[in-house]
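Hey, I'm writing a tutorial for new members on how sequence and structure tokens pair up, and I'd like a real worked example in the thread rather than a made-up one. If someone can provide the structure for the chain below, I'll link this post from the tutorial.
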Amino acid sequence: MVVNAYENIFKELSLNVIKVAADPGAIGGSTSHEYHIESAVGEDTLKLCDKCGDAVNIELYTDVHQPKNCQYGSCTEKRRTVKGIELAHTFLLGDRYSKPLNVTYRSKENKPEYTYMGCYGIGVSRLLAAAVEVLSTSSHMKMPRVISPYQLVIIPQKKGYKFEETLHIAEQVYDELERIPSTRGEVVIDNRFNQSIGQRIRDAKLMGFPLALCVSKQALASEGGDETVEILDLYEGESQRVALQEITSYLSARVATVQHHLV
């Protein structure tokens, strides 16, 4: 159950996590698994079989000899070596502790049985740091959308021509989104009005915002006469213009889709 729960969590985070057989170490027990994300800066060395999916932390080997080929079932495929950052660990302890401590329960047959134990944990802060390390570039910080502190940054026009009008639209959209449960607390306004929209977009990438709403003077009226604003998906590098009267429903639907994965 714990293994399935972990796999579901990492799936919702859209992280390609590798489950590897590992050494239980001092904690003991019959079975132990680590959950790694592949990274060149990882501290652990893993052996992976792309054919059958078997994966092992080399710490599991007690001798110098490390078999190059997979030994899982009948598979003998050559395994590749990668570095990984450990995100989580599960231990199947069995009666490792319950037996010496004489921790028992009554079975259906009313007989005393030693409690079957396990322990597990996800390194929450490590998970965030590892995700940023793997997903980001030198000019763009990325993390799983579902754990991004905010989903949207609103960037009004720089001080100057049409500034008051664009700021009014930005604040109006912000207030409307704050009244919607799915977007409440997920939106901020970048009020560094002395900086250009382009400068603030670059900073938004460095701070890890998934979405940006740009309210420029050009967005006040399009060629067709309708007011539009520009939505930037900073993670995917995509942009589109949305009619101002539709922006609240559009953004609330985008953020609600992300939050659905947290349920």
